[in-house]
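Thread: quick sanity check before group meeting

JM: Hey all, I'm pulling together slides for Thursday and realized we never actually wrote out the predicted structure for the chain we discussed last week. Dropping the sequence here so it's in one place. If anyone has concerns about the input, flag it before I start.
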Amino acid sequence: MKLAPSILSADLADLAGAVALCEEGGADLVHFDVMDGHFVPNLTFGIPVLAALRRRTRMPLDVHLMVEDPDRLLDGYLEAGADRVAVHWEAAVHLDRTLARIRQAGAAAGVVLNPATPVELLDGILECLDFVLLMSVNPGFSGQPFLPYTLEKARWLRRRITERRLAVEIEMDGGLGPATIRQAVAAGVDVCVAGSAVFGTPDPVAAMNELRRIALGETV
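JM (edit): ok, ran it. Output follows.
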């Protein structure tokens, strides 16, 4: 299991400090949420912010584009240092071409599905993906409660990936914390995004260690 703390839930006045905490806590990725105020109501991190963080860390930057027309912004985030980029099925008009652009730039290519979007839509394009990001809350706001029905989407996806012997990771984002992260991993999730469960605690480093312990079923 890989842990990807979401800096959207961190102190926005000290993102460099948040990334340093991710390093200290042994996180595998830094999750970077991009919102355009159109695809989702909120507005978040732009290209210069990603470029600034790239200069501060060697950790993989996991960029989630919650934007309309992701092709318009794609090159900027890739050039700024994104290691992984996921675009929404609901927003990408020419998905195959978009995924190819991401891979040609040397980054891992992913597709995001909103909770109500059927996972079966990905069946014909799994071979073009490096990862699938399943939203387990509706995108746009941190701190929402976990939607349990998204676990079945992870199970279906895990079966299809295994049957076809594909090297595709399953990532999940939304409401993951001590009460839910073990369920996600048991359902086949490889990468767990955690925001409030990390940065909403008094000790984010300890929270990361505890989440990893719970996810892996380890006892004290």
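AS: nice. The radius of gyration is 16 Å. The longest helix spans residues 150-163.
JM: adding both to the slides.
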